[in-house]
Write a sequence for this structure.
């Protein structure tokens, strides 16, 4: 049994804290919002973000950050990506040298192009960092449906420690040394999922979805490898695996936001209707900046940015993608 602190009581943090508690660990769930903490204590359920998933009675829930971190063998950082830096700054005074933090959110900081574990390392020097990601909607993890993810760490011992804490008969965890690739895959796929949702909102079919997924993983891989990730990672759970589930699932907030924009909503209207953080909107600009920096071609990501931030009609963006100059599918293949 390990002492685990889950920082962030949204749908993902709530689902993971519930699962970790069922795994036999001593779990404390933290939220910055007193009203949310009181609701969770009273209802033993996140009625808005994860209805139907009951919190174990033995799980502690607190608004006191110092209390939640004290003595924790593992901290699970589960706040939405736009709040990662601020939360890390709040945690820093209470984190002891060598305490381990595993980030489970997905995103890239827009103004610095840093991944979330890079932010944590910058704000909390001396802590250990890891990243856990993969095709894993909170709604299904909370219900105990079979799910597979991967944990990345700088050394095998750390990765295997986290693997052992999380893994059970319905939550399978692989390990990897490629933290960077894992985080980039989990972030960039949200931008492609917006495109898939837009296509659904326009009434396009399975052919269109398959094209976006297939060409989308190429764009993700180009950026990721140029940034320093491994191609093998983008062919795995946190690349193509996470992309498939996010583009296809009814649980995906990115796909839903894209769908609403395909039906004519503005980005702001779509985000307000989804009622949760749409990570792809925050990652889209960062993805485009990285593509420019490393001089890689990303036509889908480019058109998503135009729809999001330049009021480009979604149908026009799709037409431009279809009418681009003729290409070979893979220039590395010899004739």
């Amino acid at each position: 049994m390990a002492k685990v602190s889950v920082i962030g009581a949204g749908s993902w943090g709530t689902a993971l804290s519930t699962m970790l508690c069922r795994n036999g660990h001593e779990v404390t769930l933290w939220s910055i919002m007193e009203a949310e903490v009181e609701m969770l204590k009273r209802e033993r359920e996140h009625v808005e973000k994860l209805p139907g998933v009951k919190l174990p009675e033995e799980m502690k829930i607190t608004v006191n950050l110092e209390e939640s971190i004290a003595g924790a063998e593992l901290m699970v950082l589960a706040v939405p990506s736009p709040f990662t830096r601020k939360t890390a700054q709040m945690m820093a005074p209470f984190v002891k040298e060598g305490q381990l933090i595993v980030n489970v959110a997905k995103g890239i900081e827009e103004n610095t192009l840093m991944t979330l574990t890079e932010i944590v390392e910058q704000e909390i020097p001396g802590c250990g960092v890891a990243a856990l990601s993969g095709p894993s909607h909170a709604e299904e993890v909370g219900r105990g449906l079979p799910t597979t993810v991967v944990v990345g760490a700088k050394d095998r011992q750390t990765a295997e420690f986290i693997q052992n804490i999380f893994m059970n008969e319905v939550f399978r965890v692989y390990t990897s040394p490629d933290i960077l690739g894992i985080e980039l895959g989990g972030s960039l796929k949200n931008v492609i999922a917006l495109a898939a949702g837009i296509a659904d909102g326009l009434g396009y079919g399975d052919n269109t979805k398959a094209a976006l997924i297939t060409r989308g993983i190429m764009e993700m891989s180009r950026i990721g490898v140029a940034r320093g990730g491994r191609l093998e990672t983008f062919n795995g759970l946190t690349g193509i695996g996470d992309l498939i589930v996010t583009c296809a699932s009814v649980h995906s907030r990115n796909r839903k936001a894209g769908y609403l924009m395909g039906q004519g909503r503005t980005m702001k209207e779509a985000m307000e209707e989804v009622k949760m953080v749409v990570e792809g909107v925050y990652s889209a600009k960062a993805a485009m900046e990285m593509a420019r920096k490393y001089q890689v071609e990303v036509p889908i990501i480019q058109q998503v940015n135009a729809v999001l931030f330049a009021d480009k009609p979604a149908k026009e963006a799709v037409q431009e993608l279809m009418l681009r100059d003729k290409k070979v599918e893979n220039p590395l293949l010899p004739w």
